[in-house]
Write a structure and sequence with these properties.
Distance between the termini: 17 Å
Strand content: 5-15%
Helix content: 40-55%
Number of helices: 6
CATH superfamily: Vaccinia Virus protein VP39
Strand order of the largest sheet: 1-2
Number of domains: 1
CATH topology: Rossmann fold
Length: 130
């Protein structure tokens, strides 16, 4: 996948996460920024999301995906999560970044989206995604 510059979150984003009990390390936020940059870049070539603004994508895609963390935190390490209809990798890839102790299987009916998901997970170094 082409090298892209990570996208920084809006100034209030980390506090919004903390207000919902979502605590992220700086390296996880940076990794989420890399994912979002890849998603927005790939979206110029294939229809992955209607959201094209980075700030809006942090809120509508990344934040919304991460709201599952409190629920998934109750699972044992190594638990398998299946994201059916992953499309652009939401919510699976943000969750895989934030919850490396869980295993994620991403599925989509469209081959080009599956190829994108595989490449994105590999580019992000996510060993907990297949």
């Amino acid at each position: 996948m082409d090298q892209v510059e990570p996208v920084s979150p809006p100034d209030t984003w980390a506090q919004r996460c903390a207000d919902q009990g979502i605590v992220l390390e700086d390296n996880e936020i940076a990794q989420l920024g890399r994912f979002l940059a890849m998603l927005l870049h790939a979206n110029t070539r294939m229809n992955l999301t209607a959201v094209r603004d980075a700030g809006e994508a942090w809120d509508r895609h990344i934040f919304d995906s991460l709201t599952l963390i409190p629920l998934l935190s109750e699972l044992e390490p190594g638990a398998q999560i299946i994201d059916i209809g992953s499309g652009g990798g939401l919510p699976g890839l943000p969750l895989a970044i934030a919850m490396p102790q869980l295993q994620f299987t991403l599925m989509d009916a469209t081959k080009k989206k599956c190829d994108y998901l595989e490449l994105a997970a590999k580019s992000l170094g996510l060993s907990n995604v297949r």
